[in-house]
Amino acid sequence: MKVLVINCGSSTLKFQLIDSDDERCLAKGLCERIGMEGAMLTYAPAGGEKEKKETPMPDHTEAIRLVLEILVNPATGVVKSLDEIGAVGHRVVHGGEEFAGSVLIDDRVLNAVKACNDLAPLHNPANLIGIDACRKLMPDTPMAAVFDTAFHQTMPEEAYLYGLPYDYYRRYKIRRYGFHGTSHSYVSAKAAQLLGKPYEDLKIIVCHLGNGASVSAVKDGKCVDTSMGLTPLEGLIMGTRSGDIDPAILEFIAHKENLGLEEVMTVLNKKSGVLGLSDNLSSDFRDLEEGYRKGDENAIRAVRAFCYRVAKYIGAYTAAMNGVDVICFTAGVGENAALVRTLVCGYLGYLGVKLDQEANSKRGEDLVITTPDSATKVMVIPTNEELAIARETVRLLHP
Ligand code: ADP
Question: The CATH number of the domain where 267 resides is what?
Protein backbone atom coordinates (compact mmCIF):
# COMPACT_ATOMS: atom_id res chain seq x y z
CA MET A 1 0.00 0.00 0.00
CA LYS A 2 1.16 3.56 -0.68
CA VAL A 3 0.96 5.76 2.40
CA LEU A 4 1.21 9.53 2.33
CA VAL A 5 2.84 10.83 5.52
CA ILE A 6 2.05 14.42 6.45
CA ASN A 7 3.79 16.55 9.06
CA CYS A 8 2.13 19.95 9.30
CA GLY A 9 3.57 22.97 11.08
CA SER A 10 2.00 26.41 11.36
CA SER A 11 3.52 27.60 8.06
CA THR A 12 5.16 24.42 6.76
CA LEU A 13 4.10 21.00 5.55
CA LYS A 14 6.52 18.10 5.10
CA PHE A 15 5.38 15.05 3.18
CA GLN A 16 6.62 11.63 2.10
CA LEU A 17 4.96 8.99 -0.01
CA ILE A 18 6.04 5.56 1.21
CA ASP A 19 5.38 2.18 -0.35
CA SER A 20 4.67 0.08 2.71
CA ASP A 21 5.32 -3.20 0.85
CA ASP A 22 9.05 -2.60 0.48
CA GLU A 23 9.22 0.50 2.75
CA ARG A 24 10.71 2.61 -0.02
CA CYS A 25 10.22 6.36 -0.05
CA LEU A 26 8.74 7.15 -3.49
CA ALA A 27 8.83 10.93 -3.16
CA LYS A 28 9.23 13.56 -0.51
CA GLY A 29 9.02 17.29 -0.19
CA LEU A 30 8.21 20.38 1.73
CA CYS A 31 5.87 23.38 1.53
CA GLU A 32 7.23 26.49 3.24
CA ARG A 33 5.81 29.93 4.02
CA ILE A 34 2.20 28.75 3.76
CA GLY A 35 -0.08 31.79 4.07
CA MET A 36 2.81 34.20 3.41
CA GLU A 37 4.46 35.95 0.50
CA GLY A 38 7.01 33.82 -1.35
CA ALA A 39 5.59 30.37 -0.50
CA MET A 40 7.85 27.57 -1.79
CA LEU A 41 7.23 23.97 -2.78
CA THR A 42 10.17 21.55 -2.82
CA TYR A 43 9.60 18.14 -4.37
CA ALA A 44 12.02 15.24 -4.73
CA PRO A 45 10.88 12.03 -6.42
CA ALA A 46 13.11 9.01 -5.64
CA GLY A 47 15.84 8.79 -8.26
CA GLY A 48 14.57 11.93 -9.99
CA GLU A 49 15.54 15.54 -10.00
CA LYS A 50 14.65 17.73 -7.04
CA GLU A 51 12.53 20.76 -7.96
CA LYS A 52 11.86 23.89 -6.00
CA LYS A 53 9.34 26.50 -7.08
CA GLU A 54 7.71 29.57 -5.68
CA THR A 55 3.94 29.22 -5.84
CA PRO A 56 1.12 30.92 -3.92
CA MET A 57 -0.24 28.88 -0.96
CA PRO A 58 -2.81 30.96 0.88
CA ASP A 59 -3.61 28.08 3.25
CA HIS A 60 -2.84 24.43 4.08
CA THR A 61 -5.66 23.13 1.87
CA GLU A 62 -3.99 24.75 -1.13
CA ALA A 63 -0.59 23.38 -0.02
CA ILE A 64 -1.97 19.84 0.17
CA ARG A 65 -3.77 20.29 -3.16
CA LEU A 66 -0.42 21.23 -4.75
CA VAL A 67 1.30 18.24 -3.13
CA LEU A 68 -1.36 15.85 -4.48
CA GLU A 69 -1.14 17.49 -7.88
CA ILE A 70 2.62 17.10 -8.09
CA LEU A 71 2.45 13.46 -6.93
CA VAL A 72 0.18 12.60 -9.92
CA ASN A 73 1.88 14.94 -12.41
CA PRO A 74 2.37 12.86 -15.61
CA ALA A 75 5.94 14.13 -16.06
CA THR A 76 7.44 14.01 -12.57
CA GLY A 77 4.77 12.32 -10.43
CA VAL A 78 5.19 8.91 -8.83
CA VAL A 79 1.56 7.67 -8.96
CA LYS A 80 -0.94 7.63 -11.82
CA SER A 81 -3.94 8.65 -9.76
CA LEU A 82 -4.77 9.52 -6.17
CA ASP A 83 -6.65 6.21 -5.88
CA GLU A 84 -3.23 4.60 -5.58
CA ILE A 85 -2.72 6.31 -2.21
CA GLY A 86 -4.28 3.84 0.23
CA ALA A 87 -3.94 5.87 3.42
CA VAL A 88 -2.59 9.04 5.00
CA GLY A 89 -0.60 9.10 8.24
CA HIS A 90 -0.53 12.40 10.11
CA ARG A 91 2.02 13.39 12.72
CA VAL A 92 0.23 14.95 15.68
CA VAL A 93 2.40 16.54 18.35
CA HIS A 94 0.28 16.31 21.49
CA GLY A 95 -2.12 13.53 22.35
CA GLY A 96 -2.32 14.39 26.05
CA GLU A 97 -3.33 11.48 28.30
CA GLU A 98 -6.08 10.56 25.87
CA PHE A 99 -3.84 8.82 23.33
CA ALA A 100 -1.34 6.15 24.37
CA GLY A 101 -1.08 4.92 20.79
CA SER A 102 -1.88 5.81 17.20
CA VAL A 103 -5.52 5.87 16.07
CA LEU A 104 -7.56 5.97 12.89
CA ILE A 105 -9.03 9.43 12.51
CA ASP A 106 -12.76 10.05 12.90
CA ASP A 107 -14.77 12.96 14.29
CA ARG A 108 -14.43 11.72 17.87
CA VAL A 109 -10.64 11.56 17.53
CA LEU A 110 -10.52 15.04 16.03
CA ASN A 111 -12.50 16.46 18.94
CA ALA A 112 -10.21 14.73 21.43
CA VAL A 113 -7.13 16.15 19.64
CA LYS A 114 -8.73 19.59 19.72
CA ALA A 115 -9.14 19.19 23.46
CA CYS A 116 -5.31 18.88 23.67
CA ASN A 117 -4.77 22.18 21.84
CA ASP A 118 -4.04 24.25 24.92
CA LEU A 119 -1.27 21.79 25.87
CA ALA A 120 0.46 22.45 22.52
CA PRO A 121 -0.86 25.75 21.18
CA LEU A 122 2.01 26.13 18.69
CA HIS A 123 1.71 22.66 17.18
CA ASN A 124 -1.65 20.89 17.49
CA PRO A 125 -3.80 23.50 15.70
CA ALA A 126 -1.48 23.25 12.66
CA ASN A 127 -1.66 19.45 12.74
CA LEU A 128 -5.47 19.66 12.81
CA ILE A 129 -5.55 22.08 9.88
CA GLY A 130 -3.48 19.57 7.89
CA ILE A 131 -5.88 16.75 8.75
CA ASP A 132 -8.91 18.87 7.80
CA ALA A 133 -7.34 19.87 4.50
CA CYS A 134 -6.55 16.23 3.63
CA ARG A 135 -10.03 15.05 4.58
CA LYS A 136 -11.52 17.66 2.26
CA LEU A 137 -9.39 16.60 -0.70
CA MET A 138 -9.35 12.83 -0.05
CA PRO A 139 -12.67 12.19 1.74
CA ASP A 140 -12.65 8.43 1.16
CA THR A 141 -9.03 7.73 2.12
CA PRO A 142 -8.47 6.34 5.63
CA MET A 143 -6.23 8.48 7.84
CA ALA A 144 -4.27 7.83 11.01
CA ALA A 145 -2.97 10.16 13.72
CA VAL A 146 0.43 9.23 15.16
CA PHE A 147 1.28 11.17 18.32
CA ASP A 148 4.70 12.42 19.46
CA THR A 149 3.59 11.92 23.05
CA ALA A 150 2.05 8.43 22.79
CA PHE A 151 5.18 6.32 23.35
CA HIS A 152 5.85 8.10 26.64
CA GLN A 153 2.44 7.36 28.13
CA THR A 154 3.88 4.26 29.84
CA MET A 155 5.96 6.45 32.22
CA PRO A 156 5.17 5.77 35.88
CA GLU A 157 3.58 8.48 37.99
CA GLU A 158 6.82 9.28 39.84
CA ALA A 159 8.46 10.08 36.51
CA TYR A 160 5.68 12.17 35.01
CA LEU A 161 4.54 14.21 38.01
CA TYR A 162 6.13 17.57 38.82
CA GLY A 163 6.67 18.77 42.37
CA LEU A 164 3.68 21.11 42.10
CA PRO A 165 0.31 21.19 43.88
CA TYR A 166 -1.35 17.92 42.83
CA ASP A 167 -4.52 19.84 42.07
CA TYR A 168 -2.81 21.36 39.00
CA TYR A 169 -2.39 17.88 37.64
CA ARG A 170 -5.97 16.99 38.52
CA ARG A 171 -7.46 20.14 37.01
CA TYR A 172 -5.10 21.08 34.17
CA LYS A 173 -3.23 17.83 33.49
CA ILE A 174 0.10 19.58 34.12
CA ARG A 175 2.64 16.75 33.95
CA ARG A 176 5.54 15.45 31.88
CA TYR A 177 4.35 14.18 28.49
CA GLY A 178 7.56 14.01 26.43
CA PHE A 179 7.94 14.37 22.67
CA HIS A 180 9.82 12.76 19.74
CA GLY A 181 8.06 9.55 20.85
CA THR A 182 7.85 8.14 17.33
CA SER A 183 11.62 8.47 17.04
CA HIS A 184 12.40 7.08 20.52
CA SER A 185 10.15 4.11 19.81
CA TYR A 186 11.57 3.45 16.33
CA VAL A 187 15.22 3.75 17.41
CA SER A 188 14.92 1.69 20.60
CA ALA A 189 13.08 -1.13 18.79
CA LYS A 190 15.66 -1.03 16.01
CA ALA A 191 18.51 -1.26 18.53
CA ALA A 192 17.02 -4.45 19.96
CA GLN A 193 16.56 -5.85 16.46
CA LEU A 194 20.16 -5.02 15.46
CA LEU A 195 21.51 -6.59 18.64
CA GLY A 196 19.37 -9.68 18.05
CA LYS A 197 17.93 -9.46 21.56
CA PRO A 198 14.29 -9.32 22.73
CA TYR A 199 13.13 -5.70 23.06
CA GLU A 200 11.35 -6.68 26.27
CA ASP A 201 14.63 -7.71 27.95
CA LEU A 202 16.71 -4.57 27.34
CA LYS A 203 17.49 -1.29 29.09
CA ILE A 204 17.97 1.30 26.36
CA ILE A 205 18.75 5.02 26.47
CA VAL A 206 17.93 6.95 23.29
CA CYS A 207 19.52 10.37 22.74
CA HIS A 208 17.48 12.09 20.02
CA LEU A 209 19.73 15.07 19.33
CA GLY A 210 18.40 17.35 16.63
CA ASN A 211 17.53 21.01 16.66
CA GLY A 212 15.04 19.93 19.31
CA ALA A 213 16.62 17.28 21.54
CA SER A 214 15.46 14.75 24.12
CA VAL A 215 16.64 11.64 25.92
CA SER A 216 14.46 8.70 26.89
CA ALA A 217 14.83 5.63 29.07
CA VAL A 218 13.24 2.51 27.59
CA LYS A 219 13.07 -0.50 29.90
CA ASP A 220 11.63 -3.85 28.84
CA GLY A 221 10.18 -2.26 25.69
CA LYS A 222 8.43 0.57 27.52
CA CYS A 223 9.35 4.21 28.02
CA VAL A 224 9.95 4.86 31.73
CA ASP A 225 11.24 8.45 31.56
CA THR A 226 12.03 11.21 29.10
CA SER A 227 13.63 14.64 29.30
CA MET A 228 11.01 16.83 27.60
CA GLY A 229 8.06 17.77 29.75
CA LEU A 230 4.69 19.45 29.50
CA THR A 231 6.24 21.22 26.50
CA PRO A 232 9.37 20.57 24.42
CA LEU A 233 11.26 23.27 26.35
CA GLU A 234 12.43 21.05 29.21
CA GLY A 235 15.51 18.86 29.44
CA LEU A 236 18.57 19.10 27.23
CA ILE A 237 20.18 22.30 26.00
CA MET A 238 18.90 22.46 22.40
CA GLY A 239 19.58 24.48 19.25
CA THR A 240 17.79 27.58 20.53
CA ARG A 241 15.87 26.28 23.60
CA SER A 242 17.30 26.53 27.09
CA GLY A 243 16.23 23.12 28.42
CA ASP A 244 16.26 22.83 32.24
CA ILE A 245 16.81 26.08 34.13
CA ASP A 246 15.97 27.32 37.59
CA PRO A 247 12.32 28.46 37.13
CA ALA A 248 13.07 31.58 39.20
CA ILE A 249 15.27 32.81 36.32
CA LEU A 250 12.10 33.80 34.44
CA GLU A 251 11.18 36.43 37.01
CA PHE A 252 14.81 37.53 37.30
CA ILE A 253 15.17 38.12 33.53
CA ALA A 254 11.77 39.83 33.39
CA HIS A 255 12.94 42.36 36.03
CA LYS A 256 16.44 42.90 34.72
CA GLU A 257 15.47 43.24 31.04
CA ASN A 258 12.07 44.78 31.65
CA LEU A 259 10.31 42.06 29.67
CA GLY A 260 6.85 40.53 29.87
CA LEU A 261 6.37 36.81 30.42
CA GLU A 262 5.76 36.15 26.73
CA GLU A 263 8.99 37.90 25.80
CA VAL A 264 10.91 35.92 28.39
CA MET A 265 9.45 32.74 26.91
CA THR A 266 10.66 33.84 23.47
CA VAL A 267 14.16 34.23 24.92
CA LEU A 268 14.00 30.70 26.37
CA ASN A 269 12.61 29.16 23.17
CA LYS A 270 14.38 31.08 20.43
CA LYS A 271 17.47 32.83 21.78
CA SER A 272 18.90 30.32 24.22
CA GLY A 273 20.37 26.83 23.84
CA VAL A 274 23.67 26.50 22.01
CA LEU A 275 22.80 29.61 20.00
CA GLY A 276 22.64 31.73 23.14
CA LEU A 277 25.52 29.94 24.88
CA SER A 278 27.79 30.46 21.87
CA ASP A 279 27.07 34.19 22.08
CA ASN A 280 24.97 33.91 18.90
CA LEU A 281 27.64 32.10 16.87
CA SER A 282 25.18 29.44 15.64
CA SER A 283 22.50 26.94 16.60
CA ASP A 284 23.84 24.55 13.98
CA PHE A 285 26.32 21.88 15.09
CA ARG A 286 28.09 21.97 11.73
CA ASP A 287 29.24 25.50 12.61
CA LEU A 288 29.83 24.67 16.25
CA GLU A 289 31.96 21.60 15.46
CA GLU A 290 34.04 23.67 13.08
CA GLY A 291 34.43 26.43 15.67
CA TYR A 292 35.34 23.87 18.35
CA ARG A 293 38.09 22.39 16.19
CA LYS A 294 39.46 25.86 15.43
CA GLY A 295 39.55 26.68 19.14
CA ASP A 296 36.72 29.27 19.07
CA GLU A 297 35.85 29.82 22.73
CA ASN A 298 32.16 30.49 22.02
CA ALA A 299 31.80 27.20 20.16
CA ILE A 300 33.77 25.28 22.82
CA ARG A 301 31.60 26.66 25.63
CA ALA A 302 28.34 25.75 23.88
CA VAL A 303 29.40 22.26 22.76
CA ARG A 304 30.78 21.38 26.20
CA ALA A 305 27.64 22.49 28.03
CA PHE A 306 25.45 20.63 25.53
CA CYS A 307 27.40 17.36 25.90
CA TYR A 308 27.63 17.61 29.68
CA ARG A 309 23.83 17.90 29.90
CA VAL A 310 23.36 14.83 27.67
CA ALA A 311 25.79 12.88 29.86
CA LYS A 312 23.93 13.95 33.02
CA TYR A 313 20.65 12.63 31.61
CA ILE A 314 22.30 9.36 30.65
CA GLY A 315 23.46 9.05 34.26
CA ALA A 316 20.01 9.83 35.60
CA TYR A 317 18.34 7.28 33.33
CA THR A 318 20.91 4.63 34.12
CA ALA A 319 19.89 5.13 37.75
CA ALA A 320 16.19 5.11 36.85
CA MET A 321 16.55 1.73 35.11
CA ASN A 322 19.16 0.31 37.51
CA GLY A 323 21.55 -0.10 34.58
CA VAL A 324 21.74 0.30 30.84
CA ASP A 325 22.55 -2.18 28.06
CA VAL A 326 22.74 0.13 25.09
CA ILE A 327 22.87 3.88 24.44
CA CYS A 328 21.67 5.10 21.04
CA PHE A 329 22.39 8.38 19.26
CA THR A 330 19.99 9.61 16.61
CA ALA A 331 18.66 12.68 14.70
CA GLY A 332 20.66 15.43 12.94
CA VAL A 333 23.28 15.98 15.65
CA GLY A 334 23.28 12.44 17.08
CA GLU A 335 23.75 10.86 13.65
CA ASN A 336 26.31 13.31 12.26
CA ALA A 337 28.29 15.01 14.99
CA ALA A 338 31.10 12.57 15.87
CA LEU A 339 32.57 15.18 18.21
CA VAL A 340 29.40 15.30 20.30
CA ARG A 341 29.34 11.50 20.61
CA THR A 342 33.02 11.47 21.60
CA LEU A 343 32.54 14.12 24.28
CA VAL A 344 29.39 12.49 25.71
CA CYS A 345 31.02 9.05 25.78
CA GLY A 346 33.99 10.64 27.55
CA TYR A 347 31.75 10.93 30.63
CA LEU A 348 30.72 7.26 30.53
CA GLY A 349 33.82 5.52 31.82
CA TYR A 350 31.84 4.31 34.86
CA LEU A 351 29.64 2.31 32.45
CA GLY A 352 32.71 0.71 30.89
CA VAL A 353 32.06 2.50 27.59
CA LYS A 354 35.01 2.16 25.19
CA LEU A 355 34.55 4.16 22.03
CA ASP A 356 35.78 2.74 18.72
CA GLN A 357 37.11 5.90 17.07
CA GLU A 358 37.06 4.48 13.57
CA ALA A 359 33.43 3.31 13.78
CA ASN A 360 32.50 6.65 15.35
CA SER A 361 33.86 8.51 12.33
CA LYS A 362 31.49 6.72 9.90
CA ARG A 363 28.21 8.22 8.80
CA GLY A 364 24.66 7.43 7.88
CA GLU A 365 24.43 3.77 8.88
CA ASP A 366 23.24 1.66 11.78
CA LEU A 367 26.47 1.27 13.71
CA VAL A 368 27.90 0.01 16.97
CA ILE A 369 30.52 2.63 17.85
CA THR A 370 32.01 0.89 20.88
CA THR A 371 34.73 -1.78 20.89
CA PRO A 372 33.75 -5.46 21.35
CA ASP A 373 35.00 -5.38 24.98
CA SER A 374 32.99 -2.27 25.90
CA ALA A 375 30.78 -3.14 28.88
CA THR A 376 27.93 -0.97 27.54
CA LYS A 377 27.19 -0.72 23.84
CA VAL A 378 26.77 2.63 22.12
CA MET A 379 25.06 2.78 18.73
CA VAL A 380 24.23 5.30 16.02
CA ILE A 381 20.82 4.57 14.52
CA PRO A 382 19.41 7.00 11.95
CA THR A 383 15.83 7.79 12.90
CA ASN A 384 13.01 7.56 10.37
CA GLU A 385 9.85 9.09 11.81
CA GLU A 386 8.05 9.08 8.46
CA LEU A 387 8.58 5.35 8.01
CA ALA A 388 7.43 4.73 11.58
CA ILE A 389 4.25 6.76 10.89
CA ALA A 390 3.62 4.81 7.66
CA ARG A 391 4.07 1.51 9.53
CA GLU A 392 1.67 2.59 12.27
CA THR A 393 -0.91 3.64 9.67
CA VAL A 394 -0.73 0.25 7.93
CA ARG A 395 -0.83 -1.61 11.26
CA LEU A 396 -4.05 0.19 12.22
CA LEU A 397 -5.66 -0.62 8.86
CA HIS A 398 -4.51 -4.26 8.81
CA PRO A 399 -4.13 -5.26 12.45
P1 ADP B 1 14.84 18.90 13.77
O2 ADP B 1 14.06 17.76 13.14
O3 ADP B 1 14.72 18.99 15.25
O4 ADP B 1 14.70 20.21 13.06
P5 ADP B 1 17.20 17.46 12.86
O6 ADP B 1 17.12 16.15 13.54
O7 ADP B 1 16.98 17.48 11.38
O8 ADP B 1 16.35 18.55 13.59
O9 ADP B 1 18.65 18.07 13.16
C10 ADP B 1 19.05 19.29 12.63
C11 ADP B 1 20.39 19.66 13.24
O12 ADP B 1 21.33 18.62 13.01
C13 ADP B 1 21.01 20.88 12.61
O14 ADP B 1 20.56 22.06 13.21
C15 ADP B 1 22.48 20.66 12.91
O16 ADP B 1 22.78 21.19 14.19
C17 ADP B 1 22.64 19.16 12.98
N18 ADP B 1 23.36 18.61 11.83
C19 ADP B 1 22.85 18.28 10.62
N20 ADP B 1 23.83 17.80 9.81
C21 ADP B 1 24.98 17.82 10.53
C22 ADP B 1 26.34 17.45 10.28
N23 ADP B 1 26.71 16.95 9.11
N24 ADP B 1 27.23 17.61 11.28
C25 ADP B 1 26.87 18.11 12.47
N26 ADP B 1 25.62 18.47 12.77
C27 ADP B 1 24.67 18.33 11.84
Answer: 3.30.420.40
CA of 257 to the centre of ligand 1 (A): 31
- Pocket probe for ligand 1: among 282, 285, 363, the residue whose CB has the most ligand atoms within 8 Å is 285
Query: How far, in Å, is the centroid of ligand 1 from the Cα of 334?
Result: 8
pLDDT at 397 over 80: yes
User: Do 143 and 201 belong to one domain?
Assistant: no
With a CB cutoff of 8 Å and minimum separation 6, the contacts of 268 are 233, 241, 242, 245, 250
Count helices and strands in the chain by DSSP H and E runs = 15, 14
Same domain, 272 and 133: no
| Cα-to-centroid distance, 251 and ligand 1 (Å) | 32
319 assigned to some structural domain: yes
Which contiguous run of DSSP H or E holds residue 206? strand 203-209
Do 33 and 95 lie in a common domain?
Answer: yes
Could you tell me if the CB of 382 is within 6 A of ligand 1? no
Same domain, 92 and 235: no
Query: Residue 280 belongs to what domain range?
Result: 197-385
- Residue 104 sits in the same domain as residue 240: no
Sign of the torsion angle spanned by Cα atoms 361, 344, 349, 193: negative
Is the torsion defined by CA of 110, 116, 117, 122 positive or negative?
Answer: negative
The residue among 76, 73, 75 whose CA lies nearest residue 46 is: 76
- Is the CB of 291 within 6 Å of ligand 1? no
Q: Is residue 332 part of a domain?
A: yes
Q: Which residues are catalytic?
A: 148
Whether residue 286 has its Cβ less than 6 Å from ligand 1: yes
Q: What's the pLDDT tens digit per position in 318-376?
A: 999 999 999 999 999 999 999 999 999 999 999 999 999 999 999 878 999 999 999 99
| Residue 275 covered by a domain | yes
Residue nearest to atom 20 of ligand 1 (CA): 332
pLDDT tens-digit readout, 42-76: 999 999 999 999 999 999 999 999 999 999 999 99
- Say yes or no to pLDDT of 288 above 90: yes
> Based on the domain organization, do 224 and 310 belong to the same domain?
yes
Cβ neighbors of 357 (< 8 A, separation 6 or more) are 342
Q: 286 C-alpha vs ligand 1 centroid, how far in Å?
A: 8
Q: Is pTM, for the whole model, over 0.70?
A: yes
